């Protein structure tokens, strides 16, 4: 691959749940480390609590991170904040707590972005919009992403000024065809008025990216830790690479 090919798309690195290879995912230490490592944006996962607060955690339950298996939606913020979600990664992160979305917003430097992955349903949207409004962030710093088509649809109805991208995982069916098909994905993007598509890289091809871009949509990819794969995807016109190792990828892409 030549330097000219790589220049087809400026590397844009999104830290997947923060610098999650080096720090406990979806925590303030992970996000703060991502900025130190040169990330252009962070990506985090968000749920509503029982008392209507938005917290950053990947799973709908807390067992993986704390050893205490609580459903996030069944506990208040105060209850969830009693859990240690850092020690599982390394003893040096002992005492790390589940952050609120406001605390995550507060880490974001000027002109950097956050990809807000909504892990629950569209019921989060009114609260999310209030949190964004009080965050001090600009419209351009916010991108909402979700596998839930209705979340994207609702965001584009209620707050069209924010970019909202649909997440989809493409797989092969028994006949070796992409599932869902590219045609089906494009229909969904149009139906929900999404700004773009973000997918796994497994079945991504240059023609796949070109077709999506030619139809007026953005294309983003997750989760890529290999610099050579990232270079290829960028040369095809992929607009961001979500990675667990933002510092490592930044160093190798430059």
Could you explain the architecture of this structure?
Mean pLDDT is 95; it is low at 1-8. Strands 1, 2, 3, 4, 5, 6, 9, 10 and 11 form a 9-stranded mixed sheet that branches. The protein is an alpha/beta fold and 254 residues long. It has one domain (10-48, 111-253): Alpha-Beta Barrel (TIM Barrel), CATH 3.20.20. The protein has 11 helices and 11 strands. Strand 1, helix 2 (28-36) and strand 2 form a beta-alpha-beta unit.
Question: TL;DR?
Answer:
This protein is α/β, with parallel strands linked by helices and 254 residues long.
**Helix coverage percent of residues?**
25-40%
Q: What's the alpha carbon Rg, rounded to whole Å?
A: 18 Å
CATH fourth-tier homologous superfamily = Phosphatidylinositol (PI) phosphodiesterase
Determine the structural class based on helices, strands and strand pairing.
Answer: alpha/beta
The CATH architecture can be named as Alpha-Beta Barrel
- Quick check: average pLDDT? 95
The total beta strand count reads 11
Low-pLDDT sequence parts:
1-8
Helix segment count? 11
Annotated CATH topology:
TIM Barrel
Largest sheet: 9 strands, mixed
**Amount of beta strand:** 15-25%
Shape: globular
Order of helices and strands: HEHEEHHHEHEHEEEHEHEHEH
**In CATH's first tier, which class applies?**
Alpha Beta
Tally of discrete structural domains: 1
Cα end-to-end separation: 14 Å
């Amino acid at each position: 691959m030549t330097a000219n090919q790589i220049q087809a798309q400026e590397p844009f690195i999104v830290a997947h749940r923060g610098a999650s290879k080096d720090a406990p995912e979806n925590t303030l230490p992970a996000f703060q480390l991502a900025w130190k490592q040169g990330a252009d944006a962070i990506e985090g996962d968000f749920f509503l609590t029982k008392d209507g607060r938005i917290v950053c955690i990947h799973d709908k339950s807390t067992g993986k991170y704390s050893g205490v298996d609580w459903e996030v939606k069944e506990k208040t913020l105060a209850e969830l904040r009693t859990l240690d979600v850092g020690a599982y990664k390394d003893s040096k992160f002992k005492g790390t707590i589940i952050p609120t979305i406001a605390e995550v917003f507060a880490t974001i430097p000027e002109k950097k972005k956050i990809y807000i992955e909504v892990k629950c349903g569209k019921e989060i949207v009114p609260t999310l919009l209030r949190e964004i409004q009080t965050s001090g962030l600009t419209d351009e710093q916010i991108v909402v992403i979700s596998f839930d088509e209705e979340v994207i649809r609702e965001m584009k109805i209620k707050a069209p000024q924010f970019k909202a991208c649909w997440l989809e995982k493409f797989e092969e069916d028994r006949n070796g065809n992409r599932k869902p098909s590219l045609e089906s994905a494009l229909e969904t993007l149009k139906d929900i008025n999404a700004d773009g598509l973000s997918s796994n890289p497994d079945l991504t091809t240059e023609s796949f990216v070109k077709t999506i871009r030619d139809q007026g949509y953005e294309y983003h990819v997750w989760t890529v830790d290999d610099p050579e794969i990232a270079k290829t995807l960028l040369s095809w016109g992929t607009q961001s690479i979500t990675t667990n190792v933002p510092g490592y990828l930044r160093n190798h892409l430059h």
